[in-house]
Every structure is written in C-alpha cells, then in structure tokens.
Amino acid sequence: MLELRSITAGYTRNAPVVRDVSLTVAPGESVGLLGPSGCGKSTLARVAALLHRPDSGTLLLDGEPVRHWRHRAPRDRRTAFGVVFQQARLSADPRLPLTDLIAEPLRATGRGREVPDRIAQLAPVVGLTPDLLTRRPHEVSDGQLQRACLARALVLRPRLLVCDEMTAMLDASTAAALVAAVEDYRAATGAALLAVGHDRTLLERWCDRTVHWESLS
Amino acid sequence: MTCDAPAPAAAPETTQWRSYGPKRRSTRALRVRTSAALVAATVLAVLLVPPLVQLDQQAVDLAAKLRPPSFQHPFGTDDVGRDLLLRCVYGLRVSLLVGVAAALTATVVGTAVGAAAGALGGWADRALMRVVDTFSSVPHLLLGIFIVAMFRPGVWPVVISVALTHWLSTARIVRAEVLSLRSRPYIDAAVSGGASRWRVAVRHLLPAVLPQAALAAVLMVPHAMWHESALSFLGLGLPTHTASLGTLIQTARGSLLAGQWWPTLFPGLFLIVPTLAIAGLAGAWRERIHPRHRSELML
User: Fold this and answer.
1) pLDDT at B49
2) Given a cut of 50, is residue B193 above it in pLDDT?
3) Any stretches that span the bilayer, and where are they (chain A) (predicted)?
C-alpha cells in the first residue's frame, strides 16, 4: 500500500514542479498516471520510489510514514520498489555488461551468490538471449537495453513497480513484450504497479485504474 | 538572328567535408611520435644510465673545471670539473621522480576530495570546496615555499610541497564530473537497487572520472618538474650537492655571467625538452578524449 498525501516537490526552492498532489496505490493494484509532458509525473514517480525528497506532504508505505529518502532510507524500503526509467540509455551504467547490470542490485545487497540463478530465471522472462547478456549497453538496441533494465528492476522481487514512461521510446512489439513481462510478474507475486505515461490507450488497457494528472491536485 | 550560346554546364556541386586535412594530421602524428620517442629516451636514460654506467657523478676534477663541450665531456664540465652530461642525467632522474611522485600524490588527494565533495553534496560539499578556495587564494609558489621551509631540505619535502599545492584543480575537475554524473538515472537506479553511498562512489562514479583524473595527473608531471626546479633554484628545494635540474642551473648562474654558457644551457634543455614531450603526449591523449578541446600546456 502506497499513499501519497498533498505532495509538493521540485528541484529549486519556491518553484515546485508538483503541487499538492495525492495518490493511492492499493496492494496488488495497478494505477496508470496520465499527464502531458513536463507536468511533473516523473518527479512524482521519483518521490514515490524514495528517490526524491518532497518539499512537503506525507508518503505512507504500508501505513507507516516515510521520513528518509535516497541513501538515508533503509535499504529494505528502497528495494521494495522496482523502478524502470524512460531512457534506458541513461539509466544503464555504460561500463557494465548486461549481466552485471541486472545483477548489480543483488551484489549491492550482499546476495551475489544468487546471481547465476536469478539471471537464468529472468533472461527468458524479459526476452534476453545469452549472447546479449555479455554485451555492453552501447552494443545493444534501446529495446534490448530496456529489457535488461526491467530485469534489473525485477531482480530483487519488489512489492511495488514504478514504470516511468517505460515504453515511450520503444516500438509496439517491444512495448507489448515488456508490458506482458510486468503483468506476468504481477500475476505471480501480487506486486502493485504505478505506471506513468502519456499514452491513454496503453495505460487504459494495461492498468486497473487510470488517473489523469489534473484530477490529482 | 542571334543565338544565345548555351550556358556552360554548372560544375557539379560537391560536398566539402570539413576535415583537418592530411597536412595537419601528419603534423599531429609527427608531434605525437616525436614526443613518444623523447619520453621513451628520457625514461630509459634515467632508469638505465645510473646502474649501467659505473661513473661517479660527484667525481671532482679541479684541473678540468669549466671545460667547454668536447669529445670527452659532451656537455662540458662544471665549476669543480664534474661531467655535466652525467650530472644532467642524474638531475633529470631526481626531477622526474619528484614530478611523478608529486603528480600522483596530488591526483590521489584531489580525486578523493573532489569525489567526496561531489558524492556527498550538501554541507560536506560546501565545506570541502571552501577549503579548496582557501588553498587556491594563496599563490602556489608562496604556499610551496612555506611548506618546504618546515622541513629539512630533501626530495620528499619538495614532493609534499608540490603535491599539497596542486591537488586543487584535480579536486575541482573531479567534483564537477561527479556532480554531473550523480543526477543521471543510472545512479538513481543504483540507489533504488539498495547500493550504499560507498558502493555508488566506487562502482559507478570513480571509474567514470578515472580517465579525467589520469589525464590531469600526466599533465601535472611537467608542471611539478618546473615547480621542483623553481624551488631548488631559489635554494629551498633539494640540497646543493644533490643533482637536480634546478640545483644545476642555480649553481651555474655565476659562470653564465663569465661567458660559460654550457652549465646552464644543458640542464635547461633537459628541463624543457622532456616537459614539452610529456605535455605533447598528454595533449594528444586529451584531444582524443575531448576532440573539441585544444590541449594547452600548463606550466
């Protein structure tokens, strides 16, 4: 259960991008957040994923208020979220081969021993072949890289997925494959989803409930 | 009836590709090769000559003092008859050691401070950068002299003095680079994946700034060699009996006024040529990393 109450957030003082926004994602629910470009949906998604401290407002995770963001947030809270960003190119460390990219959260949380098993499980789920796994980000396409980023978001088995315009840069078939992978994961684990985007058709077909940005504040 | 002559066919428009052209490319290749050859010769000379040539650089021969260059002494002799070629090689050895050691120390300190400031942000960043500003506000040479004056003359005080006055630019470069990297989504992804601050710094930030830091280190070697020479020339660096390029030039000043040019010219050349060669190589490297920046020699 994720509850955002009267969140105001931004990057410079006195100029908030998000003003007084409230949103609730129930356990197992998938919520689509629709809005025009530049309205602040990504900022709200970052606040929800504990990556950006809001200027004011309350964030409740399973009924408990969140007081710390980014590194200050306890590790198990941070890793409760799986985040997929819009631009795969920028959200992948250019030096790491895709295997290491996907395994990074496991290694960072001291579970390096699970790496071979989890990679073997996840690669077919997101549609990555073994030869792709050895390549570095500049050697694969945006779609293939986004598949690896989705695998990285799923590797720690998060309770809540935040997909920030996950399919915006991709062709229709890759977008469909990634949405299917997310839905399979949710069906298996009961994870909740906050999908941010501007494609009304996609979000309405994908999510249980679609909310428009203007209706939030 | 007049008939207009048909207009001459327009010359087909060809695309002019902007390129540096073969002439400039070959000049650049020549510069890089010459620099590489000179750096290699310098390194080989300082590494091989002292162990292989069993000659005493301190051997005094008062009967042969201030001899001009000859077959026996290609660079001539100094005011107590010591062979200048041998003294220059030994001097270059000390100067290069000081240059490399100071540049490495300065880069390690600068990278650590810059990375800490950039990665931690907030009050730690502000405090560290004010320290950098404070150090920068004092002239390098003045601060260097102050540090050297606290120790007995020797190689390591000079290394410390040059290193402690030259980590500032590296710290600024590394901090700026880390700040720009820190806001990338892949750092957000690492934070969300449970990475600690230390892991983000070591796994994602430092490897990305390492090429910049290494380049800054190489560009700093010639600069550090000049500082060592300046300190020794002022009589504050190495003790006079230790051959370094600065002490050689300093002791030879008097004979220059008497018309003996060789005791100052050759140590001067030994200082200028390797520094230009190292700077030439580092410049080529820098142009490769940042093709839009022209390299400049920092002395």
Assistant:
1) 78
2) yes
3) none
Q: Give SS3 for A40.
A: coil
CB contact under 8 A, B199 and A152: no
Q: For residue B15, give how far its alpha carbon lies from the nearest alpha carbon of chain A (Å).
A: 30
Structural domains of chain B in order of their starting residue, each with its CATH number: 77-289 (1.10.3720.10)
What are the C-alpha distances in Å from B249 to residues A78, B142, B263? Answer: 63, 21, 7
Question: Are A87 and B186 within 8 A, CB to CB?
Answer: no
Q: What is d(CA B141, CA B23) in angstroms, rounded to the nearest whole number?
A: 41
ipTM, interface predicted TM-score of the complex: 0.90
Q: Would you say residue B1 has pLDDT above 60?
A: no
How do residues A133-157 score in pLDDT, each as one tens digit?
888 888 888 889 999 999 999 998 9
Instruction: Give the chain B residue whose CA is nearest to the CA of A87.
Output: B185
With H, G, I as helix, E, B as strand and everything else as coil, classify residue B72. Answer: coil
**pLDDT for B157:** 87
DSSP string, B220-263: HHHHHHHHHHHHHHTTSSS-TTS--HHHHHHHHHHHHHTT--HH
Q: Write out the two tokens for A204.
A: 């309405």
Mean pLDDT score, A55-61 = 87
pLDDT tens, position by position, B83-108: 888 888 888 888 888 899 999 999 99
Please tell me if residue B196 touches chain A, with a CB cutoff of 8 Å: yes
Domain ranges of chain A: 2-215
CATH of A2-215, one of 3.30.565.10, 3.40.50.300, 3.30.70.270, 1.10.150.130: 3.40.50.300
Interchain pair B194, A108: CB under 8 A: yes
How much is the average pLDDT of B231-257?
81
Q: Smallest Cβ distance to B193: which of A70, A79, A90?
A: A79
